[in-house]
Design a protein that fits this description.
The chain has 63 residues and is an alpha+beta fold. It has a single domain (11-61), classed as Alpha-Beta Plaits (2-Layer Sandwich), CATH 3.30.70. The chain has helices spanning 19-23, 53-57; strands at 29-33, 39-43. A two-stranded antiparallel ribbon has the order 1-2. The longest helix is centred in the middle third of the chain and has 5 residues, at 19-23. Bound molecules: iron/sulfur cluster.
Length: 63
């Protein structure tokens, strides 16, 4: 199977906008709060079908 999409390389590049989360029709992404209270997306590799809709939707990937 293809590799999991990489939503961001560093946390500083993610605004936590949840566009990728909202784009995922498979509900493979969940927003997880870190120790500072900011939410970041995490992909469940068992659910993800590698459609890459999350990457297409993510503004941080389209700059
Ligand atoms: S590749 Fe598709 S199924 Fe996997 S996390 Fe992204 S939108 Fe969801």
């Amino acid at each position: 199977m293809r590799e999991l999409p990489v939503l961001f390389k560093e946390k500083s590049l993610c605004t936590g906008c949840a566009a990728c989360f909202n784009a995922c029709a498979s509900n493979a992404i969940r927003m997880v709060e870190d120790s500072e209270g900011f939410e970041y997306p995490e992909i469940d590799e068992k659910i993800c079908i590698r459609c890459l809709k999350c990457l297409k939707a993510a503004p941080c990937r389209n700059e």
